[in-house]
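Q: I'm building a small set of examples for a reading group on sequence design. Run inverse folding on the following structure and report the sequence directly after it, with nothing in between.
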């Protein structure tokens, strides 16, 4: 739709349409554009709403992408600064995680408190500090 191809492998850089990408340099939450994910269960939606309340007034903008893979690709190329979700499957984020990390961003996974087969994710440009938000 946007005529974009994101690609990454274990040895080369993350690319968009063949050109290397890098996450943004934004280091202040007040300047960050953050996407927050909401899974389908009642518990994860409730957790997501509470997270939204904590983030909404501390960041520049919030977005809801609907695709973990696209959110990670957008952080990798600097369009977004962070993506946080309580409950995600590894197959939804594996390629995006590699892309973001190859470009210098960070991905932190933790066991989901809601579903032991899923993970919580905090992914970002590597420069933001989430202290007091997570």
């Amino acid at each position: 739709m946007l005529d974009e191809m994101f690609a990454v492998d274990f040895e080369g850089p993350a690319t968009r349409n063949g050109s290397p990408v890098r996450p943004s340099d934004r280091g202040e939450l007040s300047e960050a554009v953050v996407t927050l994910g909401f899974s389908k269960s009642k518990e994860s939606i409730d957790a997501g709403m509470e997270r939204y309340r904590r983030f909404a007034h501390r960041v520049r903008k919030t977005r809801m992408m609907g695709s973990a893979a696209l959110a990670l690709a957008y952080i990798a190329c600097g369009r977004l600064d962070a993506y946080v979700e309580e409950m995600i499957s590894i197959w939804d984020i594996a390629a995006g995680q590699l892309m973001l990390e190859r470009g210098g961003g960070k991905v932190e996974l933790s066991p989901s408190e809601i579903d032991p087969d899923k993970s919580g994710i905090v992914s970002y440009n590597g420069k933001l500090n989430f202290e007091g938000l997570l």
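The chain has a mean pLDDT of 91.
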